[in-house]
Prior knowledge:
By secondary structure, the chain is an alpha+beta fold. Helices cover 24% and strands 30% of the residues.
Amino acid sequence: MYLIRRVWNVKPGVTKQAAMIIDKIGKAYQDSGQRSETRVYWSGYTVPGPANKVYMDWTQETIDSPYREGSSAPNTGDLGAQLRELTEDSYIEFYEMAPEDRG
């Protein structure tokens, strides 16, 4: 099992706005069956942590190319364009998780 985390470095003052857009994008991927349940989170306002960063993570059994045969991205309208206007940079992280049976 893998944990996949997308990280967006956003412009100052737009963290929550960006997070709401990212959450909508994540839900669209969930609803289309392309991802498991996503979580969106940030820090730097009312809790300690890095400012101007938004995270979204989800788990997957395998790491597959989003361009694999039979895969299609959901229609997210202009959410991607809205997010690009608020984003300075983004990247993706991959983590392998301990097996649930641990046996």
